[in-house]
Amino acid sequence: MFSTESRTILLVEDEALLAMSEKLILERYGYKVMVASSAEKAIEAAVSFQAIDLILMDINLGSGIDGTQAAVEILRRRDLPLAFLSSHSEREVVEKTDGITSYGYILKNSGETVLIASVKMAFRLFEAKLNEKAKEEALRESEQTFKALFEKGPIGVAYHQMIYDGNGKAIDYRFLDANQSFKCLTGMDPIGKLVTDAFPGIENDPFDWIGLYAKVARTGEEMRFRQHFVVNDRWYDCVAYQYKPDHFVVAFLETPIRGRRNGNFLPRKNTCGLLFVA
Question: Has residue 15 been placed in a domain?
Answer without folding.
Answer: yes
